[in-house]
Write a structure and sequence with these properties.
Layout (H helix, E strand, L loop, with lengths): L1 E4 L2 E4 L2 H13 L4 E4 L3 H10 L7 E5 L3 E11 L4 H20 L2 E13 L2 H4 L8
Parallel strand pairs: 5-6
Antiparallel strand pairs: 1-2, 3-5, 4-5
Helix pairs in contact: 1-3
């Protein structure tokens, strides 16, 4: 995001939006973690850039699109967890940056089977 106002230019980098989205995702009930792909690991090694694991963003002047790759806790209702995830990420990014989030795409790439991950999960299938 880049904004020109009377006092100067404000820019919000893609990395900032990625970090906000990643933290909001990890705070969502039912999410065990983020999933980083092979290509992301390669890009990090080649560029030396700190890539937010499991998050990719496209940031324009006033809008952002976010793609998340996640691991869900076993026993959770995946649709409910993902809906909450989309809402939490959208709210966090919009509130902190002022950008309009046009989409939050979620790809579930795995399920975590550790018992301690699912004990307190409000989305757990009973």
């Amino acid at each position: 995001m880049s904004e020109d106002n009377q006092t100067g230019l404000i820019r919000i980098s893609d990395d900032v939006v990625s970090t906000i989205a990643g933290l909001a995702a990890l705070e969502t009930a039912g999410i065990a973690g983020m999933s980083g792909g092979i290509s992301e690991g390669l890009a990090k090694r080649l560029s030396g850039k700190n890539v937010q694991r499991g998050v990719s963003v496209e940031v324009g002047q006033v809008e952002a699109a976010i793609d998340l790759r996640v691991i869900v806790n076993y026993g959770s209702r995946i649709q409910d967890v993902c809906r909450d995830l989309q809402e939490n990420v959208r709210e966090a990014v919009e509130n902190m940056t002022g950008l309009t989030v046009v989409e939050v795409n979620v790809k579930v790439e795995g399920v975590a089977f550790r018992e301690e991950d699912v004990v307190d999960d409000p989305h757990r299938v009973k």
